[in-house]
Design a protein that fits this description.
By secondary structure, this protein is of the alpha+beta class. It has helices at residues 3-9, 73-98, 153-160, 166-188, 190-193, 294-322; strands spanning 19-28, 38-44, 47-53, 60-61, 107-116, 122-130, 133-139, 144-147, 200-208, 211-221, 226-232, 236-237, 242-243, 247-248, 254-262, 270-276, 283-287.
Length: 343
């Protein structure tokens, strides 16, 4: 997934029952790059629900419950997507001109949508990115666009002008169209969207001198949003993480690993903190250092010695019984005429 899409997809809260509908649009400047020239993907919460790209030319469902949508929904959105495809081709060229670029692979992205919070409030999103960096964004307090690059100022001024007011159209989309469809999608897919699966947690440590590399593997959970971190004595958060992205499993659940390096002192106890919607309260999984293995090695060595001794003794006994060995007759009464003792 492209960098900006990864960043924006991580916006959902861990412990909230809010729901969001987001669309990610991507336009690529160079055909033959291995990416579709245009694509759009729709998500409800963390579930991909629809997909369109310039290769397929069709707006398609990605989950079974989306097939409950009304007649004409798929054809209507296919035509809308074709129009968006043409718009993005034009906008990619405009962006390249703003950056004085005449060729190469360049990517224009848009994320927009809405979130319906559990308190009934509505939040809107509209953010543009170019080549993995934020380009401009919609301020949903004033419903005006704010540039985050100098090259975005011309577009921002034009979209905020009184005769265009793109922000007002975005406001109508967020508060009416987007919210209406979000409610429909949540109702159709409630069983899937609100499924709760408790996470499994495994902690481990690699000791290197005075330091320990701690790993916390959290897996098998659903939904996707999760909060994982290392804590010292259940009070102090441990920083300097190495964190993977939340990755999908084949069964529809998710996994993540969080690692950190610490220098333990006497009395310190490190635990992996996990918070997830399936839990009534967060988990604290304590890492316990391994016991000294010196006595284990001594026992193993002793056993090896005992086994070796018994093995050698058994081998000698076996040879004596199976080789026909007899003692020499040393009697003085031997009748052998060739025996010198009888001379």
């Amino acid at each position: 997934m492209l960098p900006l899409m990864v960043l924006l997809l991580h916006l959902s809260a861990v412990c909230s029952d809010s729901h969001s509908l987001r669309y990610y649009y991507t336009g690529v400047s160079a055909p033959g790059s291995g990416l579709p020239e245009y694509s759009s993907v729709g998500y409800v919460d963390d579930r991909e629900i629809v997909n369109y790209n310039s290769d397929s030319g069709r707006y398609r469902p990605k989950v079974q419950w989306m097939e409950k949508m009304e007649d004409g929904y798929w054809e209507r959105n296919t035509q809308i997507s074709k129009g968006n495809e043409a718009t993005f081709r034009h906008n990619v060229r405009i962006a390249m001109e703003r950056f004085n670029q005449s060729g190469g692979l360049h990517i224009l992205q848009l994320m927009e949508g809405c979130e319906l919070r559990d308190d009934g409030g509505i939040t809107g999103y509209s953010q543009y990115g170019y080549d993995g960096r934020e380009f401009l964004a919609l301020d949903t307090q004033t419903w005006t666009f704010v540039p985050t690059m100098a090259q975005a100022q011309i577009t921002t001024q034009r979209w905020n002008s009184p005769d265009i007011e793109v922000g007002e159209r975005k406001k109508n989309y967020v508060e009416n169209i987007c919210t209406e469809y979000l409610k429909k999608h949540v109702e159709n897919g409630r069983e899937d969207l609100e499924r709760r699966v408790r996470p499994q947690v495994k902690v481990s440590g690699q000791e290197k001198g005075d330091t320990v590399k701690l790993h916390c593997q959290v897996y098998g959970f659903h939904p996707r949003a999760v909060d994982v971190k290392w804590m010292k004595n259940k009070e102090d958060e441990v920083h300097s993480y190495e964190t993977t992205h939340v990755l999908p499993n084949p069964d529809g659940t998710y996994q993540i690993r969080v690692s950190t390096e610490v220098t333990p002192k006497d009395g310190d106890r490190y635990s992996c903190y996990v918070d997830h919607r399936s839990l009534e309260e967060p988990l604290y999984i304590v890492w316990e250092p391994e016991k000294s293995s010196v006595w284990v090695i001594a026992v193993v060595v002793a056993l090896v010695v005992v086994i070796a001794v018994f093995g050698i003794g058994g081998f000698i006994f076996y040879r004596k019984r199976n080789t026909g060995y007899k003692e020499t007759d040393t009697s003085d009464t031997s009748s052998d005429p060739n025996n010198p003792a009888n001379a």
